[in-house]
Amino acid sequence: MSQSNDKIGVLVMSYGTPKSMDDIESYYTHIRRGNPPTPELLAELKGRYEAIVGGVFPLRENTDGQVAGLQDKLEQLAPGKFVCYQGLKHASPYIEDGVEAMAADGIKRAVGIVLAPHYSSMSVGGYLKRAKAKAEERGIELAGVESYHLHPKLIEALTERVRNGLAKLDRTSGGATPVKVLFSAHSLPAKINELGDPYERQLLETSEAVAGRAGVKDWQFTWQSAGRTKEPWLGPDILETLEKLSAEGYKGVLVAPVGFVSDHLEVLYDLDIEAKQAAADLGMALERIEMLNRDPLYMETLAESVEEAAATLKA
């Protein structure tokens, strides 16, 4: 039987990624609600992972590192007060596993936070719903961080990356002009806007704040990585946007995927390989900003958001 623990648990949640090439099929079967990918789709998916990792699989390390970085930052801000646990949507340890681990350690109060700054009922909302349901079952009070998309330190970190990205694009393109900054995020089914979901609005707010602070006047928002379903997804997709920019005479593009916080398939393949090749075929140079990963400002954003949510818990 576990002993009572006065520490506040922090359930750090994210989408998850396969642990190895061998786990790709089971991972996508979970995403597809128990329906395995067709042999053709599985071969394509494995090809994408092979292209970015070459059989070595560092993607999970990014999330592990962010959880460890948040634990370190929380320990600096409030020694001995918080202890972090990990919960993934589509891979082990699942969200429910993270809550179970807290319960086993005697945690009675907790904060749930997602490694995604922008709220949608289909993303962050779904994570928190699962976490709260399991926490209630296990007698844990859990407060959720719904979004932190305008946290000053997040905006500062992204602004620095846009400035550095523009300098890199200027070097690699030989000073090509004109240049467009494209802010991007993972597309979701378009029906979310009919439900009054704040996802798109929050992404535009982040983009506007970063562009303003970086002094970027020529920018727009675009979507990427839409799912392959019959229903319409939010658009335009970045590949369509690149074609339009080429037709308008643009010679350089900096992609700022502000909806993502670490290096993974949607960044390393969809942008670094697919979008970059599409831009090259159109006669444009394309670079992207560095991802946040364990950036100290991002860790502080998370830690301060956790502290703020923890203040709402019962003493």
Automatic annotation (TrEMBL):
Its EC number is 4.99.1.9. Signal peptide: none annotated. InterPro entries: Ferrochelatase, Ferrochelatase_AS, Ferrochelatase_C, Ferrochelatase_N. It catalyses: Fe-coproporphyrin III + 2 H(+) = coproporphyrin III + Fe(2+). It is found in: Cytoplasm. Pathway: Porphyrin-containing compound metabolism; protoheme biosynthesis. The keyword Cytoplasm applies. CDD domains: Ferrochelatase_C, Ferrochelatase_N. Fe(2+) binds at residues 186, 266. It comes from the Bacteria. Belongs to the ferrochelatase family. HAMAP family: Ferrochelatase. PANTHER family: FERROCHELATASE, FERROCHELATASE, MITOCHONDRIAL. Involved in coproporphyrin-dependent heme b biosynthesis. Catalyzes the insertion of ferrous iron into coproporphyrin III to form Fe-coproporphyrin III. This is Coproporphyrin III ferrochelatase. It comes from Paenibacillus thailandensis.
